Amino acid sequence: MHSAPVASLPSDPVATALDFGPFLALPEAGRARLLAGSERKAFAAGAVLMRQGEAPDAVFAVVAGRLRIAQDDPPTIVGAPAAPVLVGEMSVLSGQRRNATVTALTQLRAYRIPAALISEIMAAEPEFARQLSAFAAIRLGNNFLRRSSPFADLPAAAIEALSSKLEPATFAAGDVLMNEGERGDDAYLVRTGELDVLRAERMLATIGPGAFVGEVSALTGTPRTATVRARSEVSAFRLRGDDVRPIVKKYQDLVSRLESTMQSRHIPRATGEVVVAPAPDDPQAVLLRDAGGTTYLRVTHEALAIYHDIDGERSLRDLAMRNFERTGAIDPAGVFATVATLQARSE
C-alpha cells in the first residue's frame, strides 16, 4: 500500500470532507469528531487500500479519485466508483473479514477512519447508525446483484434501483420459504446456504448461492409450482413482485433470460386420462380425446411422445432432453411450445 505523508495533502474543510452518504446523518460536530480521529492518506494509482480476507480495522472515506472494487481470484469487478465514496463499512459492521479488494484507479485522497471510532459514533448517534447500516445493506445487495444473479447484466442505474428494494432475510434449517399451490408475490435471491425444492413432498432439486426462487409467481401471479424448504441456515434477499416487475418490463434482455430460466424449471402437470386414436386423414397424426369422447387436439407422433412424458415430475428441461434422446433434435423451444399447446387445449 502506497501512502503519501499527511503533510503533503491539501486540507479538506470539515463542512465538506464528509458531506456525503451516511455521514449526512451526523451533525457537523459528529463529522468533525470523525475527522479528528482519522488519518488523512494519499494513494497512488494501483495502490491497494484493502484486501479481501483482511481483518476489518477501518473504513475509508475517499474524497478525491476513483477506485476499483473486485472480489475473488481471478477478480470479478463489482464496481468502479468515483469520490466521494465510502468503502470498507460492510466488514466493519458485520465483524467479518473483508469481502473485496479495493484498488486505486487514479491518485486518491481519503480518510482512514478506525473501526473503533465508527462504533463509538454509531453508539452516540442512533440515526447515523441506522443510515450506515442501511447504506451497507444496499451496497451488499448491489454487489450481489452484479456478481451472482440473473440481473448481473443490467445497467448500473437499474442495479442501483433494484438493490435499494432488496430486503435481507434469514431462514433456519427446516423453514419453508414458500408452499406449492399457494399464491405469493415475492421471490428470493439466495446468498448462502442450501434449499430443497419439492413437489408433492418429492425432492426435485437442491439449490444454493446465486439461485433465484419464487420468480414465476412473483412475475406472473400464478400459484407456487413447488415447495422450497431450507436445508441449512440460509441467507437471502427478498424481492417483492411490485418492485421487480417494472424493471423486468423495462429491460427485454432480462425478460428473455428470466423467461428461459422459468420455462426450463417449470414442471407441467399431467392433464388427466385421454384416449388416443389415429387421425383418419393423416397417418402421421393422432387425435387426443378426453374420457367423454370429445376430440380436442390433433398432434404428431412426436408431440404424442412428449405428451406421454408429462408426468408431473419432469421439468421442461427434462422433457427437452428426453425428446433429444428420441429424435436427436436439440429443440427446447419447440418442446416448450408443444407442451404449452397441449396444456392450453386440455384446460
What fold name stands as the CATH topology of the largest domain? Jelly Rolls
Number of discrete helical segments:
12
* CATH homology superfamily name of the largest domain: Jelly Rolls
What proportion strand? 25-35%
Tell me, briefly, the overall form: elongated
What's the story with the biggest beta sheet? 4 strands, antiparallel
Structural class: alpha+beta
CATH architectural arrangement of the largest domain: Sandwich
Strand count:
19
Main sheet: which strands, in order across? 1-8-3-6
Total of domains: 3
Helix content: 25-40%
CATH C-level class of the largest domain: Mainly Beta
* Rounded Rg: 27 Å
Low-confidence stretches: 1-15
**Mean pLDDT, as a whole number?**
80
End-to-end span in angstroms? 67 Å
What does this structure look like?
The chain has 347 residues and is of the alpha+beta class. It has three domains: 6-147, Jelly Rolls (Sandwich), CATH 2.60.120.10; 161-265, Jelly Rolls (Sandwich), CATH 2.60.120; 274-346, no CATH class. The chain has helices at residues 14-17, 28-36, 89-94, 115-124, 126-147, 156-163, 215-220, 241-250, 252-265, 301-309, 316-327, 332-346; strands at 39-43, 48-50, 58-64, 67-71, 76-79, 85-87, 101-104, 108-114, 167-171, 176-178, 186-192, 195-199, 202-207, 212-213, 227-230, 234-240, 274-278, 285-290, 295-300. The strands form five sheets. It has a four-stranded antiparallel sheet with strand order 1-8-3-6. It is elongated, with a radius of gyration of 27 Å. The model is unreliable at 1-15 (pLDDT under 50).
